[in-house]
Amino acid sequence: MSKYDTRYASSPQAVKKYDTQELRDEFLIEKVMKTDELRWVYSHYDRFMVAGLVPVNKKIKLETIDPLKAPFFLERRELGIINVGESGDVNVDGTAYELGHKEALYLGQGNKEVEFSSKDGSNPAKFYLNSTPAHKKFPNKKIGINDVEVIELGSAETANARTLRKYIVNSVVDVCQLQMGMTTIKTGSSWNTMPAHVHDRRMEVYFYFEVPEDQAVSHFMGEPQETRHIWMGNEEAVISPPWSIHSGSGTASYSFIWGMAGENLDYGDMDVCKINELR
C-alpha cells in the first residue's frame, strides 16, 4: 500500500482562532514532489486526494491506501495527472501514455494497474496527481497542450493578467466530478483569482510551481470578511475549504494547478467577492 497523511475538515469558526502554524498544519502541503515515492494527502473535504511523484531510479506503481478499503486504487475513484517535469510514461493496464511537459492524462474508474516512469531519470518527469471518488467509468484520455481550453483573464493595470488553461473539465473530457487546470501569471502581474470568490458547492486545491527559488506566494484563504494568509514556496499545495476564498499574490511570476471536486461540474458556478469588501 502507498503511504498517506490525513487532513480533516475544519469549520470557519475554528479557523478564525488558528495561529500561523495551525493554519499551515491544517491546509498547507509542503514538499509535494517525492522522489521515487508516492505519498498521498487524503482530505476529508470531498475525499479529495493530492500527491506528487518524481520517478528517478525506478518505476512507481499506483497502489491503494487503507482508508479507501478497496483492492486497487481506482476501484471507486478517478485520477487526473499533469506532468510539470520532463517527458515520462504512464502505463495503464498495458497501454502506455507518454506525457510531455505540461501534458495531462485522465484515468477513469476501474483501471487496475497503473505505473509511472521517466524517460530519463537525470531529467525526470514530475507527475502531479489529484483523485476524487467516482460513480461511473469514463474513458481514459490524454490531454495535450493543443487540446486544452485557453482563457485570457485580468489585465496589467490590475496586476492580475494571466492565462488559464482547462485540462480536465467536462467540456474537454468526460468526468464524474474531478476538474483540473493550470493558470500562469504573466510577467509584471502578481495576483491570481482576483477578484476572489467562493463556491460552497466545491472544494479546491492549488499547487504552486514555477516559483523562483528566492521568491514566494502569499496565498489568501478564509471567509471573505475573515481572511488569513499562508506564505508558500515552489511546488507546494494548499487546501481550500468550500467556504473559503482562494487567491494569491506572488513576489514574481508563477504558475499553479487548480483541482476541484464537489456538487457540480459548472466551472463558472462561483460567488464573487467585491474587492473593497474583503477583510
From TrEMBL:
Alphabetized UniProt keyword annotations: Isomerase, Metal-binding, Zinc
**Reaction(s) catalysed by this chain's protein:** 5-dehydro-4-deoxy-D-glucuronate = 3-deoxy-D-glycero-2,5-hexodiulosonate
The cofactor note from the UniProt entry for this protein is: Binds 1 zinc ion per subunit.
For this protein, the record's InterPro entries field holds:
KduI, KduI/IolB_isomerase, KduI_N, RmlC-like_jellyroll, RmlC_Cupin_sf
Q: Where does Zn(2+) bind?
A: H197, H199, E204, H246
- Which pathway is it part of? Glycan metabolism; pectin degradation; 2-dehydro-3-deoxy-D-gluconate from pectin: step 4/5
Q: Which GO terms describe its molecular function?
A: 4-deoxy-L-threo-5-hexosulose-uronate ketol-isomerase activity
Enzyme Commission numbers on file:
5.3.1.17
Question: What Pfam families does this protein's entry cite?
Answer: KduI (PF04962)
Major enzyme class:
isomerase
Kindly list the cofactors needed. Zn(2+)
Which PANTHER family did the record assign?
4-DEOXY-L-THREO-5-HEXOSULOSE-URONATE KETOL-ISOMERASE (PTHR38461)
Family membership, please give it. Belongs to the KduI family.
Q: What does this protein do?
A: Catalyzes the isomerization of 5-dehydro-4-deoxy-D-glucuronate to 3-deoxy-D-glycero-2,5-hexodiulosonate.
Name-wise, this protein is 4-deoxy-L-threo-5-hexosulose-uronate ketol-isomerase
The record's gene field reads kduI
